[in-house]
Design goal:
This protein is α/β, with parallel strands linked by helices. Helices cover 35% and strands 22% of the residues. Helix 1 packs parallel to helix 5. It starts with a helix and ends with a strand. 39% of the residues are buried. It binds S-adenosylmethionine (SAM). S-adenosylmethionine (SAM) binds next to helix 1 and helix 4.
Length: 269
Amino acid sequence: MQSAEAIENSIQINEAFTKQSLHYDTNDFQNPLLSAMRMQVYQHVSKFIRRPSRILELNAGTGIDALYFIQQGHTVHATDLSDGMIRQISKKVNDCPNRLTVQQLSYDQLDQLKGQKFDFIFSNFGGLNCIHELSKITKDLRSILNPGGYVTWVIMPPICFWEIVSILKGNRNAFRRLNKNGVVAHLEGRHFRIWYHSFLSIKKSFGPNFKLIHHEGLAALLPPPHVFNFPIRHPWLYKTLQRIDAAVRNHFPFNRWADHIIISFQLVS
Ligand SMILES: C[S@@+](CC[C@H](N)C(=O)[O-])C[C@H]1O[C@@H](n2cnc3c(N)ncnc32)[C@H](O)[C@@H]1O
């Protein structure tokens, strides 16, 4: 049973992302920071994903990553909560005959997929920050993953250097991510609560049946996507930060403290 507060949060999330779905692809493709971040996620995944894999995508949005995986020779079952996101991704199904299926499904209802098996379960760009208890998702992963299957999640953690440094510019919300009760996000005129998940809490939620494969910072030192004009305004500094970020993002603390972290597990028992 969901509390009234959780139901209201889901309604606000659905409405916010439904409104955002109308311009999501345009904004995404025009943002060079987001494109670079997606490339880093794809490089991370390419180290272990086998072709062809049957992929379950959680909070798939408009299907930008689903289409990428399909181009790489995989098949994708794309799920999302939002009416608008589901409408957008459904428009792409005909372009991918027999490779893309779509289902409106909240990721805390994965028990509805019992009987199906996937090789890889993927979630990108903070969709999982819309839930407080990750265990409501991880409890069902084992029953829908093939033996040796992988999971990659891209999640916002509580510490992001870029936000902390923004104190110098007078940002009074620089430590907002550390609030244990979550933070109210404002999107498209809607308000809903989100939660930031630490590396350790994510790892704990997976339990002993999963082995941690790799984790790295995403925009550990590079600017987060909302500072999208940074590469144009400061090209030299951006290039320098790119080099330093690439050198440190696989090492502590930058593999835990970043705008997002990319974290992968393998089902071992
Ligand atoms: C920032 S968007 C990311 C979309 C996509 N993964 C991408 O990389 O473009 C977050 C997505 O999470 C979805 N979402 C939020 N809560 C969800 C839930 N409980 N179950 C499934 N999807 C959810 C939203 O509808 C939205 O599409």
